[in-house]
Design goal:
- There is one protein chain.
- The chain has 236 residues and is an alpha/beta fold.
- It has one domain: Rossmann fold.
- Helices cover 36% and strands 15% of the residues.
- It has 8 helices and 6 strands, in the order ααβααβααβαββαβ.
- α4 packs across α6.
- The N and C termini lie far apart (50 Å).
- The N terminus is likely disordered.
């Protein structure tokens, strides 16, 4: 108990929205920031999970024009300025505890859809080993661990590795991202025993990363691939 108290004192939990210390022990987000993240509201795209303006449409304008190797992606929040700052601190500021809130909200807002996927395994988007060592953890894996614990589906963190340094994808358009991510992932073993796979990542923008990983997972034997991301961008 003493060591737990000391840890809380020296390394207090930070709010994923404002980065302030959370108000009460056990809270994942401070009271004043509840609702600051922009939840994805219906109607949303049946393919990528982005909000769409017309409830008569099943797909966003991007997905009407594109073909993805995964069946569907779902997301909890829109990727806006608050989300971007939060993800930056999460990945580059060592705020691993943010994953608790991210996973909780992803399951709270999209748990029904995720359960409907009936996944046999969960695979987080992998990082290059050097990048993981530098960061201290893989942000997608941290979110996936919490989803595994909540829904009881096996986590395969070692199933796929990243073998190509793709650099930062932020400034690249969709076509350049696809080219950069070509042959970026390698499956370490067969996934034939896991026909339905759920891929987990922090952010979905163009879908290039999820697509590249989905192709690798299918090549390794999976029959159908789905995605679950905490944040999703707007239509291009």
């Amino acid at each position: 108990m003493f060591f737990g108290y000391l840890t809380d004192l020296l390394f207090p939990r930070r709010c994923p929205a404002c980065h302030g210390i959370t108000d009460k022990k056990g809270e994942l987000i401070c009271e004043k920031c509840v609702g600051r993240f922009s939840a994805v509201k219906a109607p949303f795209c049946f393919k990528c999970g982005k909000e769409i303006g017309d409830e008569r449409e099943e797909y966003c304008g991007d997905c009407i024009k594109k073909s993805f190797p995964f069946s569907r992606n779902v997301a909890a929040f829109n990727y806006d300025e608050i989300a971007g700052n939060s993800v930056m601190r999460f990945k580059n500021g060592g705020r691993r505890e943010y994953a608790d809130y991210y996973a909780q909200q992803l399951l709270s807002l999209r748990g029904k859809e995720i359960a409907g996927f009936k996944p046999d395994a969960i695979i987080p988007v992998p990082l290059l080993p050097a990048k993981k060592r530098e960061r201290g953890f893989n942000q997608a894996e941290e979110i996936a661990k919490r989803i595994e614990k909540a829904i009881g589906v096996r986590l395969l963190s070692d199933a796929v590795i990243k073998v190509k340094n793709t650099g930062s994808q932020k400034q690249l358009d969709a076509k350049s991202r696809q080219e950069s991510l070509k042959n970026a992932f390698l499956a370490k073993y067969s996934l034939k025993d896991f026909p339905r796979v759920l891929l987990v990542d922090d952010v979905f923008t163009t879908g290039s990363t999820l697509s590249a990983l989905a192709k690798t997972v299918k090549k390794a034997g999976a029959k159908e691939v789905f995605g679950a991301t905490v944040f999703v961008g707007k239509e291009e």
